Amino acid sequence: MADTGIMITRDNRPSRLVLDQKPGMVAWFLAAFVLAWVYISITILKSGDPIGWIFLAAVIIPLFFLTFVERQTLTLDRDADALILTRQTIFKKRQMIDELGLVRGARIRWRGQGSTRSGRLVLQRDTGPLEFGSPQPQSRARSLAREVNAWLDSKGPTA
User: Fold this and answer.
1) Could you please report the per-residue DSSP string of 21-80?
2) What is the pLDDT of residues 77-108, one digit of tens each?
3) What is d(CA 147, CA 23) in angstroms, rounded to the nearest whole number?
4) b/e for 60-85, b at 16 or more Cβ within 10 A?
5) Does the predicted TM-score (pTM) go above 0.85?
């Protein structure tokens, strides 16, 4: 499930850049739906009606889709000479760590046409491209690529 949350810059210092892709409205809607459905099921069960068990069992379907909602964090750390990509779901957390020196820049992979056009951030590395986050609106995608490239081009902290 592609969750189209907006990507934010959580930290932008000379030594570290952190971009965060938090879950969007689809994830929040599913979570609210699950909570409401569980409440309704328990209310029905309290009244003594066994149909509440069927309602409670039906919550598995949206709960299943919620497991695909992913939060992604991209950390570029000069002090550790590391690029860290963290992908986290409700049940699993994965990290990919690479050398920051292998990153040559950021670009945008465009999709769609006209006003519906969106872009996904792609880091150009010596070991191959690395896509990050979900597609963003045109202006936000450009802004992210400029921010990453400016950070990579900067000298970093002075000793």
Assistant:
1) E---HHHHHHHHHHHHHHHHHHHHHHTT-THHHHHHHHTHHHHHHHTT--EEEEEEETTT
2) 999 999 999 999 888 999 999 999 999 999 99
3) 21
4) eeebeebeebbbbbbbbbbeeeebbb
5) no
